Amino acid sequence: RLSEFSQKKYPDSKTDLFAMFIEKCMQYTNKNGMSAMITQQAWMTISSYEQLRIKVLNKDIVSLIQLGAHAFDEISGEIVQTVSYVFRRSDIKDYIAIYKKLTDFKSERKKEEAFLKTNNDFYVKKIQFSYLPSSPIAFWISPELSNAYLKGKIMAEYVDSFQGIITGNNDKFLRFWAELDINKISFGSCSMNQVDLSRTYWIPYNKGGEFRKWYGVQDYVVYWKNGPDDKTRGKKGFSNYYLREYVAWSYTVSDTIATRYYPYGFLWDVRGSGIMDKSNMMLYLEGLISSRVGMSLFRVSNSTLSCQVENILQFPVLVGNKEKVDNIVSENNIISKQDWDSFENSWDFKRHPLISIISYNRAFIDDTTDIDLAECYTCWENECNERFNQLKANEEELNRIFIEIYGLQDELTPEVEDKDITVRKADLQRDIKSLVSYAVGCMFGRYSLNKEGLVYAGGEWDESIYPTFAPDMDNIIPICDEEYFSDDIVSRFCEWVKIVYGEKSLETNLDFIAKALGNKGNTSREVIRNYFLNDFFKDHCNTYSVTGSGKRPIYWLFDSGKQNGFKALIYMHRYDADTVGRVRTDYLHKAQKYVETAMQSAQYTIDNATSSSEKSKATKAVTKYTKQLAEMKIYDEAIAHIANQRIEIDLDDGVKVNYAKFQGVEVAQEGKKALKVDLLAKI
What's the pTM? Predict the structure, then answer.
């Protein structure tokens, strides 16, 4: 009812109740009378309030203070951004109003101090606003910036743009690419005519995401077997632009706009909207949008944190030094792509950088080769620093060029802060953890030391592509607090390190890895074991997570509970209906026997030890083994129930649906309520 009322009675301010109050107060005010309000500041700039602004500009703004965020100490964060103003119901053509801009001050006290000074004052005739697209109340812009709108063409004349697809059900239609059978995803297609939707019906999909410049944030794919027919909306003529290369940006902005180049092969939604070239200007415009000048132009038409397509299309474009700008932007895209592809959340990931940084084949050919992992890390660190410094220099050069083109030398400086450079510097712990993750991928056959890139994520299994390091054949890798199994994860990891970096340097490299991981333990192997027991799966979930959609692990952890009685990893892409049964009979039952034997040995020590310290240590061991066996007994009852069902999974359903099939298994307890047991670690 409220929606219908607002559309009928207040069509120019229907977007928000506060805007309707602005309009109502202007109606209530007598001729030459005044109304004063403090409201959200969004009405000043964004396009949905254009008609309301026209009504405001038919009156006189006496004074206006743009307060922005942090105007009230009781309200924290950047979301609540306010403006205070006095309107008079009159229309004096050359009336000069006074404006103040206090958005840069981050507390109520600092804003008050700035208000009392005159150096934040602007004296503006309202007619100046009518020269700007959509008539934003952009009182702070300089004559030079204002002239750009008179001299330049708007960006919409150089590019095409569509807002994007609305699926109507993201849980149904969207997946994190790593969840799926890789053979069913269409990568790099230039048009829909190249896509066989009966075979490759998942299409890369830009849904926005983290603040990152130039390249990357390629997480999602969209189900396209039925094309757009089962989605909520796509604009008319939209399909002509499917899969074309384009430039998008992060939906949320702060000090800069993070543009990103997307190559051929993508669809996109509202938060992944962007511009498509029609005049050989795409790189130039990408550079303009991401520059400090671009941010100044954006603020003319938008004072919020959300970057809308219409804001970008209204930019006035002045062209100069185009070839140089194109070359710098192209280099920035390449640098950022190199960084993005260095980690396994990229589908173009080739090989871990701490391996590819060296001439790794030597280690596979000559067992005596001695490669120091610490030296590899130093090389990687230098490579990251070089990328970072080059990108920073390039961004500052772009700023200089556009500041000169737009004549804004008195307003802007070209410097870029380190925090705004979005390629990663080396980080010892993060990069060693990612090396461990890559090693686990080799253990499961997701990666091969003999072939670049993702070699198995669904489809036909081929043993021949793993001659140097054979993956685990039954797709089950146990993680125990002691080495009970021949394919124990720590043993396999040590074997992998030895093959990659050489036998002579094994202990040195294990020490380096253990120190970087930072877990507890008296030896490097103990530290590594504790990492696998306590932290690996958490880190894996964080690596395989998607902004807004949660964690999507592809290695699943069978976990009996807090006592670490039994843990084992499997790779979801190699799961079959007998996997759970094998986990139970080949690993859980054997682990129970190993623990029982260990407990008997500890009990024997208690009965026969002469040393009190030895006896105390054995007593603690018995206590631990007793708790583990009790935990494993309940877990065995739960896993037996699922093993007998021989559950199938469909990779198209993704992690969320498939993972839930192994959780909340009821185990009967005599005289008590049934106990619910999760077979897999919670995510």
Answer: 0.88
